[in-house]
Amino acid sequence: MNFPPTLHLRNLVRAAVCSVIFATGCESRAQTLFLPLPHLEGGPSEANAMTADGTKVVGYSNMALTSNQACWWTSAGVALLPGMQNWYANSAYAISADGGVIVGDRSFGGTEEAFYWTAAGQIQLVPFPSAPRAATAWGVSGNGQVIVGGVRLPDTTERKAFRWDRAQAIAAWLPQYPAPVVGAGALGVTDDGRRVVGWVQTGLSTQAAAYWDDGGAPELFSNAGDAIIAVTATAINPDGTVVVGAGVHAVSGASVAFKWTPARGTIALPNPTTGFYAISGATAVRVSGNGRVIVGWGLNVAGDPEAIFWVDEQPYLVSSVADAAGVLPSQWEPHKAYGVDYSGNSICGYGKATSGRIEAFALIIDATPTPPPVVAPPVTASFNHTTGAFTIRYPTVLGLSYRVRGGNSPAALTPIGDWMPGSGIQQEFTPATGGASEYFLQVEVKAGP
Predict the structure, then answer these.
(1) How far apart are CA 381 and CA 413, in angstroms?
(2) Residue 71: pLDDT above 90?
(3) Nearest 5°: CA angle at 211, between 208 and 216?
(4) What are the φ/ψ torsions at residue 336 (nearest 5 degrees)?
(5) What is the DSSP string of 289-342?
(6) What is the pTM of this model?
(7) pLDDT of residue 369
(8) β-strand 5-7 against 67-74: which pairing, if any?
(9) How many CB atoms lie within 10 A of CB 43?
(10) Are 429 and 404 in contact (CB under 8 A)?
(11) Who contacts 193 (Cβ-Cβ below 8 Å, separation ≥6)?
(12) How much is the pLDDT for 94?
């Protein structure tokens, strides 16, 4: 029997990813840009979140007569969130992937109310089983269907986490952790709305990062004996494979930004070392859709906040990256990074502007990894004379995908299975040859998924 492996390589052109919020075309995408965002009436402003494609940023900007006002930024500039002008103070904290739903809180007469805004231009309040003293919507699923947040109940110090599927009449309280003092808050949710992350009270003065699946009992991200204790889970990526937040070293008690994955559990993200002052503690606030880019902030030893982002767990100061690119305005100090788009190429937050005023900013970077070269993998073959099975083996590379074709004629090979992403380890494949006296195999390689 003759089974010569026939190799065929197919190069696919990698499509450029274009952010259109502040760049005018793909030619400027690879360029690092630092963009102070316009404000409404000269007061402070803060950018908290952005859409998956980075075309809309939400947050607040201060107006002289009405304090903070929920607003959004697009390529057209800054605008008030329609329907919010008559309220004393309000802010937008999260936005759905397509920008169709925005959530936050508004206050009037000492009462904070959780709101959601829809693309129809309507402002509505999240409905609760009982009226809270204060409520904030902190997160929304990618399609805008599920909203999560936290409340404080009247005549008590108890805090509750809520999850509201907009198909239901009222929001549901998420179960508390069994502790002498109960309290909880929900901050993020997966795209399917099934997993919610946040925090739960575990003692009189302690809390822990937790998640709720399908509205069930909370589970903690850290266990006794872990080196890193997750204290607050601030965000989760769309498919639930990456969670980020704030934690502490179990031994030293130092504050750290953490990242959780199913395979590795909770780990500490390293602090950047390029600043004038060392970073003494950090918090991760949000994570990109693909899980590669995490944004947040750290407190330096001088007591000043500094905006940070991590790409594949490598830390960067926003100020250092923008300064190295020659795009950081004079005396601008980025304090905190709060939002990131799906690809991790656009980041938003706030800082101290050249004027000394607190202003929102956007940082445009290129976090898309350089694709590895598409090259032929060395293929080895073996034949089991007892079973008649023919097996090929070939190494795989992260960032490339592989597919095997087979058949009795090299001119008529058909795919055997789907494209499989490279994992960095050897792939083994045993086709069903059907007892043919001659069989041909072809390994295809392409960049990307």
Answers:
(1) 18
(2) yes
(3) 120
(4) -145, 140
(5) TTSSEEEEEEEETTS-EEEEEEETTEEEEHHHHHHHTT-SPTT-EEEEEEEE-S
(6) 0.78
(7) 64
(8) unpaired
(9) 17
(10) yes
(11) 141, 145, 146, 163, 165
(12) 98
Judge whether 50 and 37 are in contact, CB under 8 Å: no
**Tokens at residue 394, please?**
């070939």
Tens-place pLDDT, residues 56-68? 999 999 876 567 8
Close Cβ partners of 324 (under 8 Å, ≥ 6 residues apart): none
pLDDT band at 87 (very low <50, low <70, confident <90, very high): low
Query: Any bridge partners for residue 352, and if so which?
Result: 333, 358
| Distance between CA atoms of residues 405 and 150, nearest Å | 53
In total, the chain counts a number of residues equal to 449
Q: What is the DSSP letter of 28?
A: G
| Burial annotation 387-414 (CB, 10 A radius, 16+ → b, else e) | eeebebebebbebbbbbbbbbeeeeebe
How far apart are the C-alpha atoms of 121 and 82, rounded to whole Å? 6
User: Can you read off the two tokens belonging to residue 305?
Assistant: 């906040």
Asked if 188 and 221 touch (Cβ cutoff 8 Å), the reply is no
Whole-number percent of the chain with pLDDT over 90: 61
Residues contacting 7, CB < 8 A, separation 6+: 376, 379, 442, 443
- 416 exposure class (CB count in 10 Å sphere: 0-12, 13-18, 19+): middle
The highest-confidence range among 319-328, 377-386, 439-448, by mean pLDDT, is: 319-328
For residues 297 and 350, what is the distance between their CA atoms, to the nearest angstrom? 11
Q: For residues 191 and 172, what is the distance between their CA atoms, to the nearest angstrom? A: 18
Q: Is the dihedral of CA 51, 57, 60, 63 positive or negative?
A: negative
- Please, what's the largest Cα pairwise distance for the chain? 86
Bigger pLDDT: 16 or 310?
310
- The tens digit of pLDDT for each residue in 143-168 reads 999 999 999 988 787 899 999 999 99
What residues pair up with 447 in beta bridges, in sequence order?
Answer: 400
